[in-house]
Amino acid sequence: MYVPDEDIHIITSSGDQTCVLWDITTGLRTTVFGGEFQSGHTADVLSVSINGTNSRVFVSGSCDGTARLWDTRVASRAMRTFQGHEGDVNTLKFFPDGNRFGTGSDDGTCRLFDIRNGHQLQVYYQQHGDKEVPLVTSIAFSISGRLLFAGYSNGDCYVWDTLLARVVLNLGSVKNSHENRISCLGLSADGSSLCTGSWDTNLKIWAFGGHRKVI
């Protein structure tokens, strides 16, 4: 993931249980987070998100079921570990204010955590009756943070109200929606539209003025 406000660094996550800060001008590793350090992840690291208000801070999600908070200036230990998920943490994203972040997991839930005190603030889960619970594969926040977009392994894309913890809309129920797993989500710079990518080989762009598909 590209480090904002810096033109020369990216952060990657890996199956070797570490995150790495790279200098893209030299191709060399600058810092390794985790690995032999006790506070590091104990399984594959699947995702990272960099704080938009402080680019020295990032969070990582792992197959060990945890998310961890890091400061790029202190590689020897995670600043905080966040628990609660009962499956792999596939995706995470910082909340717009930089004080919170969301996660999505194989356990079918999204969760909201506060980096200041480590508390879990909210759980987002939709009942599916006797059906198999779909995995959360990708998430994104609206610019205000009031909406959480969550993509799932069954092709659904829920729009959650972050305060009320209820689904406002399921883009997966809209005509001509995706026919396979949602693999990625991206919000436009002005917050007016969402792009969804899927294993069905399609990208779809949704405009939220009328919840309509543009492309």
Automatic annotation (TrEMBL):
WD repeats lie at residues 38-80, 82-123, 175-206. The keyword Repeat applies. GO terms for biological process: signal transduction. Keywords: Repeat, WD repeat. PANTHER family: GUANINE NUCLEOTIDE-BINDING PROTEIN BETA G PROTEIN BETA. This is Uncharacterized protein. The lineage of its organism: Eukaryota, Viridiplantae, Streptophyta, Embryophyta, Tracheophyta.
